[in-house]
Every structure is written in structure tokens, then in C-alpha cells.
């Protein structure tokens, strides 16, 4: 890379010592911005309970949204489990939309009010490729308290109604 190149903060080669300006973040989304690392646990009636580690990044973009990326690994072995990416965008002063794409063949759109660092997201749309598993509904909640990000995810799959599936607790890097 030449010396006149610049990297966005979301770029993996960007460093804290970079002289590039940090894009502004809408105040309602600012508590979510950053890189978060931690653990989670999953349970569902059709599978064995499991534990995982996770890294989530909400990266500033210079626009009224944060780029979103999540990567999970099996606790203990480090084997890759799940990944998803998308955007957390502000649609009004206190309402956000989470757009998510998963390599398992799903796209999701959720909306919710931002209240005191909590976003209760309701599903607006769920689309699946013809070969994706039969997921019928997903609900998400995100919460930031100080340096902690927690989330919960509920899923309706095949014949199982909407059921709590994942809980994660991460800390800001």
C-alpha cells in the first residue's frame, strides 16, 4: 500500500495509530460502535446445548449506520461455527434497523426502538435460499451497558415455535 492510501476503521489492516479521521457515529448508535469479544451459549429442543466464543464488530461508516460482523467459534476447540454480516442503521431519531446476511442462505431485516442502550428488534422480513434450513422466524435483542454487550436470539425452525436459542455476553475491546 502506498503512503497516500487510507484505510477505513473497519479494514483489518487499520491500526489505532492511523492518522485517518474516525467517521462520526449517530449518537443513538454510538454505544454499539466498536469491537466486542466474549462468550455465548446456545440451546434448542432439537440439538445439544453448546458454548461458543464470539467477536462482534459494529464499525463506523461515516453514514448513519454501522457495518456489522459476527464470527463464532466452538468453545474449547476454536472450530469456526457461524458468521453473519450486515448493517445496523438509524431510521429515525430513536429507531434502528438491523440488516443481516448469513452464509447459510438467509437474509433478515429487523426493526426496533432504541431505549437506554437496548434495541428490541422485531422481524420485518426473513428470506431464505431454496436450500436453506426451514427457519420461519427470528427475533433479536441487543443491549449495551457500559463496556458490556449482551444479546438474545429466538428462532422458529421447522415444527418448533419461536424458542430462545442464543445468549451472548461480550466486552468492548
Mean of all residue-level pLDDT scores: 89
The level of helicity is under 10%
How would a textbook summarize the main sheet? 10 strands, antiparallel, barrel
- CA-based shape: globular
What is the chains' assembly state? single chain
Q: What is the number of strand segments? A: 10
Count of individual helical segments? 0
Strand order of the largest sheet: 1-2-3-4-5-6-7-8-9-10
Give the uncertain stretches in residue-range form.
Answer: 1-19
- State the end-to-end CA separation: 27 Å
Strand percentage lies at: over 45%
**Rg (C-alpha, Å):** 17 Å
Order of helices and strands: EEEEEEEEEE
Q: How would you classify the helix and strand content by structural class? A: mainly beta
Give the topology, please:
Layout: E1 34-44, E2 47-60, E3 65-74, E4 80-92, E5 95-102, E6 106-115, E7 118-128, E8 135-145, E9 148-157, E10 160-172
Antiparallel strand pairs: 1-2, 1-10, 2-3, 3-4, 4-5, 5-6, 6-7, 7-8, 8-9, 9-10
